[in-house]
């Protein structure tokens, strides 16, 4: 490879070397060096992004890993599928945004671009740019056929909560509850709804919402579902104490004991 870097078969040889490095558990520096060599040799090869990602997966150091990703910012263009993969893999939010700014596409209601806009919404949410996250989510939710509707609505709920827009939180929860949900999914949404009523000081509405998703026999599907039930019961107990509803307190405590 060093002697004939321009050889047309160099990318294939590099792939063999990558597999050898993996098999022999080579040091991370070799993977970084191989990635740099491959990009210098074939920056526009159809396997370039996949090859560099495969190298980056073998590099534990975050800075060294991002050095590999930074090479890809030098590409003139990038496919939507490669950009989606990178936005999932890159640990740095600021670097994710650099890739988004450079390679994003105008919106089209096709799965790959919808996924791209959802990943962008998640990125902006984590960067605390809540209004921008909502903009991307609203684009997705306005479509006749919505990409991953439940995931979009959940992120929209979290975003409205961060913005303190409780009425919008509850509206989104109620819209989600109109969809087909299993018991565990319904419980997780009702919990968000009850928490919103609780934050707004609506004690009775928080209690009523929480009771609507509590199984009276305490039956739960898994540990996460059990925690949701406990959280609902604590809302009932906490809010019931504020309005001195002894019946709600007693019944909630009785169910809590069965968990």
Show the helix and strand layout:
Elements: H1 10-24, H2 28-41, H3 48-56, H4 62-72, H5 80-89, H6 93-103, H7 111-126, H8 130-141, H9 149-162, H10 166-177, H11 183-199, H12 203-211, H13 223-242, H14 246-258
Give structural notes.
The protein is mostly helical. It is built from 14 helices and no strands. Helix 6 packs antiparallel against helix 7 (111-126) and helix 10 runs antiparallel to helix 11. The mean pLDDT is 92.
Condensed summary:
The chain is an all-alpha fold. It is built from 14 helices and no strands.
Question: Main beta sheet, described?
Answer: none
Number of helices: 14
Helix content: over 70%
CA(first)-CA(last) distance: 63 Å
Structural class: mainly alpha
Strand content: under 5%
Rg value: 25 Å
Question: What brief labels describe this structure?
Answer:
259 residues; mainly alpha; single chain
